[in-house]
Amino acid sequence: MTATSRLFGVGIAGPALDPSERAILERHPPRAVVLFKRNIESERQVADLALEIGTLPARPFLAIDQEGGPVDRLRDLAGPFPSFHGAAKAGLARRAGELAAEACARLGVRVDLAPVVDRRLPGAGESVLGERTAAEEPDRIIAAARNFLQGLHSRGVAGCLKHFPGLGRAGRDTHRALPFLPDDEREEERDLAPFRALKDVAAAIMVSHAARARDRLPASLSPDTATRLLRDRVGFEGVAFSDDLEMGALAEFGALPQRAAAAIRAGCDLALVCSRLEEYPECVARAEAEVPAPRLAEASRRNDVFVQRLRSLERAAPPPDRPLEEIAADVAALRERIAEAAATK
């Protein structure tokens, strides 16, 4: 067991831990386990999986991408959840956050990797991210994202702003290719505005793989972006998650272990390895060998503070005792309210 493994979040292959996965996670306990659609079959099954993960050394927390709309991991249990765009446009982002958090908390998930605060720009964010984005104008994004986060927090679940420094001007999907953000200081400030306004509300920011034109490196691997821009210019003091390090945007930047070490060295405090668990031990070893000790200690401290925040949110929230069937009924009612609002505009 190494402390460096606590700077990682990982994904597993299916609805239960198999013996080989458990052996890896016992030897290299991660800070988080991220759930995907492949891990979700039923409420009982997810609850059992959460209990099993909770027996691992150091008890990793569970996280999920529960945005609603196109990214809706819980749709088969309590959905389909409305998109963030639809909820924001109808002025119902807080209610969307409340219901997402209720479903998460019911299943033992403590972190929702949402909301998306990228700008909805024609020809870029609007087409690449679609309904995941709230609006084009920073002020509207900030208002909707703040409401969504408040909804999450009211039910004891933390959120995470994404995708720093903003994918609104990215013309490519980072799942497949590396986008370059044009060098335009005014537009960059508009991209950064939601992160700057909400950095203390969320306490977690996900760093994307988009490259700023000035250094040509993916943000997740760039000290200039993941540290100097995020920490010095934006003033963020919370925990920085990398986006999934297996994405196509990083294909030209070495093998997965090399990327993991580079991401932590650049300023990401929690490196996400979402599918290739068999490579995760080597990612840990590479980070241990290549990341300076002061940087490892800094990342560990930020993760510790974030976990304390998770506990505080959970303690302050009502117990998650509403059945998923009731939550699903409220999700359906929310969809109807959003559709009615859209029809009147």
Task: Describe the protein in words.
This protein has 345 residues and is an alpha/beta fold. The protein is built from 13 helices and 12 strands. The strands form 4 sheets. The protein has a 5-stranded parallel beta sheet with strand order 6-3-2-1-12. Strands 7-9-11 form a 3-stranded parallel beta sheet. α1 (19-27) links the parallel β1 and β2 (32-35). α5 runs antiparallel to α13, α7 (138-154) runs parallel beside α8 (185-202) and α10 (256-266) crosses α11 (280-290). The N and C termini lie far apart (57 Å). The mean pLDDT is 96.
Topology:
Elements (H helix, E strand, L loop, with lengths): L7 E3 L8 H9 L4 E4 L7 H12 L6 E4 L1 E3 L2 E2 L2 H4 L5 H6 L3 H14 L4 E2 L12 H4 L9 H17 L6 E4 L15 E2 L3 H18 L1 E4 L3 E2 L10 H11 L5 E4 L13 H11 L4 E3 L6 H11 L2 H24 L7 H20 L2
Parallel strand pairs: 1-2, 1-12, 2-3, 3-6, 7-9, 8-10, 9-11
Antiparallel strand pairs: 4-5
Helix pairs in contact: 5-7, 5-13, 7-8, 10-11
How would you concisely characterize the structure shown here?
The protein is α/β, with parallel strands linked by helices and 345 residues long. 47% of the residues lie in helices and 11% in strands.
